[in-house]
Structures are given as structure tokens and as C-alpha cells.
Amino acid sequence: MAIAFIKERQSRWKRLQELIQKAEQKRITTFSTAELLEVSKLYRQATTDLAMAQTQQLDAELIYFLNDLVSKSYNLIYPTQKISGKQVRQLLLQEFPALVRQNGWLIMLSLLLLCGGFLAGFFGYLLAPETITGILPKDIVTQIIERYENNAWFNEPLQKRPMVSFWIMQNNILVALNSFAGGMLLGTLTIWALAFNGMLIGAIAAVFWQKGYLLSFWAMILPHGVIELTAIVLAAAGGFILAKSILLPGEYSRSDALKMNGGVAIRFLCGTVFLLVIAALIEGFLSTISTETIPEIYRLLFSGLTGVLLLGYFRLK
After folding, report:
1. Rg (CA), the chain
2. Residues 6 or more apart from 91 whose CB is under 8 A from it?
3. Is residue 284 a contact partner of residue 223, using CB atoms and an 8 Å limit?
4. What gap in Å lies between CA 22 and CA 19, rounded to an integer?
5. Which of 146, 168, 234, 303 could form a disulfide with 280 if both were Cys (CB 3.0 to 4.6 A apart)?
6. How confident is the model at residue 159, as a pLDDT?
């Protein structure tokens, strides 16, 4: 009986050993999607085999072998090690840019939804302002214009800028988390977060357009907005990775697809939080400075520079 038991399962035990050895030499982060799912599947099978061997009271050496195999597999799948500075650098300088390149179509989908919301907000306000007042009350619109005309919109005192930067960072990370978590609701909340934030920006842009201040609006928004909006789009793409795992798991079960892609999506989110921190620092310490101090042309040039740096960053290998 023990011989039949071993012959039937030996090939998959050997394969699991090979994957464990590979992870010890090159880290599990180098595994392909198929290999990650294979490790998970083989681990569950080995656990079942161990339970059966113990129940049937098979050879002690076999039970010892399976127990060791299961233990190593568990440590591989559920590591307890702390995150090191090297791992953070690897995530930000290698893994995150690679994930951005690999998920171009989901990023494009997120961008289209944000742009669609922007166009709806912009033309909706120009053509029928009353339809937009639900998300952008008229008194707020008036206050925004008055603050801009009085050079008080982005003109915070130096001592207040750290607090402003922290508040902005907190708010933006919350928006990113909502966009990301919406993926677990089949992407519905992710779609809403993108469309809604796009509508807000579009409606405000329309207000400035009507007053003849559109260029000034972009000069104040884009210095931090290039990075900030990119991060929001990427966070939403991470949410769509989760939604895709549920809706289109392919040849895998939904739980297996979600386990594997969940790790990818989390790394995606960590990268976007890093970008949002940078955007909040720019907004808190640069965008809040008066346009009399930093003229609009320099703000727009700085915006272009951030765009070029972002493109360069995402090409890192």
C-alpha cells in the first residue's frame, strides 16, 4: 500500500522540492504566475498527503519527509520575515515599474474612465450647470473663483504648508484606497471613483474656462497633478486586477486567481502610495505658493518635467 501511495504522488513531491529550491536561490518574487499557482496547489496536495499518511500509519520516514516538505512549503508561501530596505528598493525600482509596463491595458482603461468623467464634468457644467451642482455646489464654485482672483487659493503661509501637505496626502491616499478596494466589488466602486473625481476636476476646469482662467487653473493643478492623477489611475488599475481575477479567472479557480493576483495588486498599490506621497509634498510646498512668486510658465514647465521623470521611472528595469 505504501509503495502505491508513493508512486502515485512522488512526481508532484519532486516538483514541489524543485520549486522550493528555486525560491531559496532566487526568491519567490521571481516566480511566474503559473509557478506561484503551482506552488499553492502542490502545497495543499502535500498537506493532504501528509494527513493521509498519518491516518493510515504509513512508514515513519515517509511521514517525516512529508512533514518537512509541508513545513518548507508553508514558510515559502507564508513568510514571517520583516520587510527590509532592500525589499522596498526592489519594489519601487524594479517590481512596480515592471507591473506598470505589464498592465498597460488596465491602466489605459482607468485613464479613459477618468478622462470620460472629466469631459462629462466639463461639458456638463458648460451646457447645464444645474446638473453638476449636486457634486459641485454653486457657493463652492464662487468661493474658488474669489479665492483665485484675490490670490488666496494657493497662497498658504509657510508654517501651514506641512499640515496642508499632510491633509492632502491623507485625502489622496484615501481616494486611491477606494479606487483599489473597489476591485473586490467587481470594479464598480473603482469605476465610480474614477468617473466622480474626473467630473469634479472637469467641472472646476469649466468654471475657470468661463472666467478666462483655464491656463491659470492648469498651472496651479498640474505641478502636483501629473503625479497625483497618474497615481490615482494606477491605484484603480490595481483594483481592476482584483476585479479581473474574480470575473475572468481563466483556467484557475477564482480563489487561486485572487490569491495570486492579490499580491500583485498590493504591490501595485504600494507603488501608487509612494507616488501620492511625492505629489502631496509638491502640492503642499510648491503649489500652495503664490503665482506672483512662481509664475505660471514655470509651473507648467515643472509639470512637464514631472511627466518626463515619470516616464523615465516606469521604464526602469
Report:
1. 26
2. 267, 270, 271
3. no
4. 5
5. 168
6. 56
pLDDT at 130 over 60: yes
Grouping H, G, I as helix, E, B as strand and the rest as coil, residue 248 is coil
Q: What share of the chain is helix, strand, coil (3-state, %, to 5)?
A: 85, 0, 15
d(CA 302, CA 309): 11
Contact 194, 179 (CB under 8 A): yes
Tally DSSP H helices, then E strands, for the chain: 12, 0
3-state class of 250 per DSSP? Answer: coil
Q: What is the pLDDT of residue 233?
A: 94
- Of the two residues 134 and 205, the one the predictor is more confident about is 205
What integer is the mean pLDDT of 137-154? 69
Contact 262, 245 (CB under 8 A): yes
What's the grid cell of residue 314?
Answer: 516606469
169 or 207, greater pLDDT? 207
CA–CA dist 36, 13 (Å, integer): 16
In angstroms, rounded to a whole number, what is the distance separating the alpha carbons of residues 310 and 276?
A: 13
C-alpha cell at 112: 479613459
What are the DSSP calls for 129-158, one per residue? GGGTTTTS-HHHHHHHHHHHHTT-TT---G
CA 144 to chain centre: 31
**pLDDT at position 303, please?**
94
Cell of 131: 446638473
Asked if 208 contacts 242 with a C-beta cutoff of 8 angstroms, the reply is no
Domain residues of the chain, as ranges? 2-77, 85-314
